[in-house]
Each structure stands twice: as C-alpha cells, then as structure tokens.
C-alpha cells in the first residue's frame, strides 16, 4: 500500500539525532497565535509553538508508518477458520476538514483462510490510519482493505463509532451525536448470517449500522 508523503517543498528535515526538525512548524504556530489576536510572547504561550509542533508530529505519525513494516513479522500460519474479533479499539484522529479531533471505538473482525495476524497488530493498523488527517468513512474502509490484502481472509468486517468535535464545538453543536460507519468485505458483505453474528458480538444490530 502506497504511503502518502508530504510534497518535497515541505518535507520536514531531520535533526542530527534523527528527529524531525520542527522549526518551520513552530514558526507557523507562532504566527497563528498572532493572527487570532493573542500575544505569542506572553508567559503562557512562549513555549506553545514547540509543544504544538511536537503534538502534531505525534498526532500525524501515521504518515511515517507503512503496512509492510507494521505487519512484516506478525502473520502466522494457523488452521483456524472461525471469526476473530478485536473490539473496542480506541481511535483518535483529526478531521481533515477542520483539523479538529474525532475519537471513538473501532471493532475489527475477520475469518482466516490460512493465516492470522497478531492481535496487537490489528489495533496498530487502526492506529496507523487514524494518525493521519481523515474522514471517518475512509478510515473505516482503509482498515478493512488493509486486513483483507494482508491476510487474504474469507472476509473482513469493520465498524467504527466516533464523536466529532467539528460537530460538538462548532456548527450544529450537537454534543451527544455519534457517527457510525462500517465496511464489510467478502463473506461479511455476501453472507447475512456472518454479518449478523459480527454485529451482535460487538453490540450492534444490523439495522443500526
């Protein structure tokens, strides 16, 4: 799976110890503070550009990860053909429209054909795509497609339920609304019984997704 890189003119330079050089990011945050009417030099904000730049590197660290590296040593030959579910995976991401967080839980299931994936790696796949600028629909589908390509299972099912601060803090300001998305591949799409079993095990009804 191709890894999306920043354009060459804004590709971060690395410092001598290998960490990204955040100088330009810090300058941009400093300018932003001034643009919204703040004084970047006051006590509480002097170190804010550095903190924000460091936080953004972490929140978008998924751009520096690849599926091949993540799953290289985590695929195992196992004679097992029943459903495997990793549920209640906490996800935190940034909406690409307003750069505001959305967060919630993701449930991932697959039916192995000949291989299984290490359980912790299932959660790491979700985290890799969440740590990028996202929309929830694409995030859900990317996780399902990645599991499908990596393991070649009989089917994959992914359900994600999240709350978006772009809806809670601005716009319609609906603090208690949640967005639910799903991606069903293979037997999860074609076989209603498989889909229903998955949804019931993760606490969702088929008509509620």
Architecture overview:
The chain is α+β, with helices and mostly antiparallel strands. The protein folds into 2 domains: about 10-60, GTP cyclohydrolase I, N-terminal domain (GTP Cyclohydrolase I, Chain A, domain 1, Orthogonal Bundle); about 75-209, GTP Cyclohydrolase I, domain 2 (2-Layer Sandwich). The protein contains 8 helices and 7 strands; from the N terminus they run αααββββαβαβαβαα. The chain has a 5-stranded mixed sheet with strand order 5-2-3-6-7, with helices on both faces. The protein has a two-stranded antiparallel ribbon with strand order 1-4. α1 (about 25-35) crosses α2 (about 50-60) and α4 packs antiparallel against α5 (about 135-150).
Quick rundown:
This protein is α+β, with helices and mostly antiparallel strands and 209 residues long. It contains eight helices and seven strands, in the order H-H-H-E-E-E-E-H-E-H-E-H-E-H-H. The chain folds into two domains: 8-59, GTP cyclohydrolase I, N-terminal domain (GTP Cyclohydrolase I, Chain A, domain 1), CATH 1.10.286.10; 75-208, 2-Layer Sandwich (GTP Cyclohydrolase I, domain 2).
Structural class: alpha+beta
The CATH topology of the largest domain turns out to be: GTP Cyclohydrolase I, domain 2
The largest sheet is: 5 strands, mixed
Residues in helices, as a percent range: 25-40%
Measure the end-to-end span: 28 Å
Strand coverage percent? 15-25%
Write down the CATH class of the largest domain: Alpha Beta
Please, what is the CATH homologous superfamily of the largest domain? Answer: GTP cyclohydrolase I, C-terminal domain/NADPH-dependent 7-cyano-7-deazaguanine reductase, N-terminal domain
Mean pLDDT: 89
Strand order, sheet with most strands:
5-2-3-6-7
The H/E string reads HHHEEEEHEHEHEHH
């Amino acid at each position: 799976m191709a890894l999306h890189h920043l354009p060459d003119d804004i590709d971060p330079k690395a410092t001598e110890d290998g960490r990204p050089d955040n100088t330009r990011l810090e300058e941009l945050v400093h300018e932003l503070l001034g643009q919204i009417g703040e004084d970047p030099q006051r006590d509480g904000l002097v170190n804010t550009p550095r903190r924000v730049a460091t936080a953004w590197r972490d929140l978008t660290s998924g751009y520096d990860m690849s599926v091949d590296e993540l799953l290289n040593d985590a695929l195992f030959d196992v004679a097992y053909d029943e459903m495997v579910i990793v549920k209640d995976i906490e996800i935190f991401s940034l909406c690409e429209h307003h750069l505001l967080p959305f967060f919630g839980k993701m449930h991932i299931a697959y039916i192995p054909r000949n291989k299984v994936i290490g359980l912790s790696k299932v959660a790491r796949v979700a985290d890799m795509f969440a740590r990028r600028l996202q929309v929830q629909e694409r995030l859900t589908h990317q996780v399902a497609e990645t599991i499908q390509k990596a393991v070649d299972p009989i089917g994959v099912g992914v359900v994600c339920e999240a709350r978006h601060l772009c809806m809670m803090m601005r716009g319609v300001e609906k603090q208690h609304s949640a967005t639910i998305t799903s991606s069903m591949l293979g037997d999860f799409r074609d076989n209603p019984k498989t889909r229903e079993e998955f949804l019931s095990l993760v606490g969702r009804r088929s008509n509620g997704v």
